[in-house]
Model the fold of this input.
Amino acid sequence: MQDRAAQCILAAEPWIARHSLHTAIVCGELDEVRRIVEEPSEAVRLRGGPREWTPILYLACTRFTNPATIAHALEIAGVLLDHGTDPNDFYMAGDAQYSVLTGIAGEGEQDSPRQPYAGAVRPAPRARRRGMLEVAARLEAAAGPAASPPSSLNLGIFPS
Done:
């Protein structure tokens, strides 16, 4: 229901996709994301939007099935990581921390649907595991050796 409403709003008001870095990410506006993060600013680390999350959390947790969102999700993740986003970022829900990796994996929060770009990341069982490991490896590499629990993405599956 929310996805259809968001699709209708975006169709009626396409400017909304370029309203902020957060909306550009959720709407899959790759060129706008690049434009904003190229400006000398801390944009990739600033909280905003209705949930006061950082840009990487909006990307990791979106369930918007907009075609541009799905098509550009991995490239947008790369742009954010290349410009200094914190791959260890998380948000609190009660006593639980929901990390970027939790958002990417999806499916665990309040009966939310799977990530809309999951098929692009994980199209078949073997490729699915490889795709998720590639995303996890990129996040872990960006986190660096100084990351420490509980927000660390050190999954113990990649040698140091």
Observations:
- The mean pLDDT is 76.
- Strands lie at 90-93, 96-99.
- Residues 37 and 43 are 6 Å apart (CA to CA).
- Residues 2-143 form a domain with the Serine Threonine Protein Phosphatase 5, Tetratricopeptide repeat fold (CATH 1.25.40).
